Every structure is written in structure tokens, then in C-alpha cells.
From TrEMBL:
Name of the protein described by the UniProt record: D-lactate dehydrogenase membrane binding C-terminal domain-containing protein
Pfam families: Lact-deh-memb
The D-lactate dehydrogenase membrane binding C-terminal domain, residue ranges: 10-39
Stretches the record annotates as Disordered: 27-63
Organism this protein belongs to: Allofranklinella schreckenbergeri
Any one GO molecular function term: flavin adenine dinucleotide binding
GO biological process, one term: transmembrane transport
Ranges of Polar residues composition bias in the record: 53-63
Length: 63
């Protein structure tokens, strides 16, 4: 599902894509994830989708 701003609401889906594609080189941007190599995150993405996301950041997206 997408939020009104176009962001994906499912961090589990983003982590699934990261597990399958460690360098983000197969299909960058799938599931509204970063298009940058090695999962570098653009500032517009929610904190929960970034590499340095804390468990609290992820919980705030899931709820």
C-alpha cells in the first residue's frame, strides 16, 4: 500500500528486497526503495527505510 505522499507503508517488504538484492543493482527502486547503489537512501524516504533506522523508526511506520 502507498501513503498519500507515495511512500510505501511496508518496511518488511523493503527488508525483503534488501535481503534478495544486497547491492541494490538488480532492480533499483522496486517497492519504493532507494534507487542508489548499496541502498543509499535519498533524504525524502522515511527514516524507517534507511540503513541506520532504529527499531522505533520502523515501528512508527508499521503502526
Amino acid at each position: 500500500m502507498l501513503e498519500s505522499n507515495g511512500a510505501c507503508r511496508k518496511p518488511a517488504l523493503a527488508s525483503h528486497y534488501r535481503a534478495l538484492n544486497l547491492t541494490n543493482s538488480f532492480n533499483p527502486g522496486i517497492g519504493h526503495t532507494s534507487r542508489q547503489r548499496h541502498w543509499g537512501c535519498a533524504p525524502q524516504w522515511p527514516q524507517g527505510y534507511r540503513e541506520n533506522a532504529s527499531p522505533q523508526d520502523i515501528q512508527s511506520i508499521e503502526s
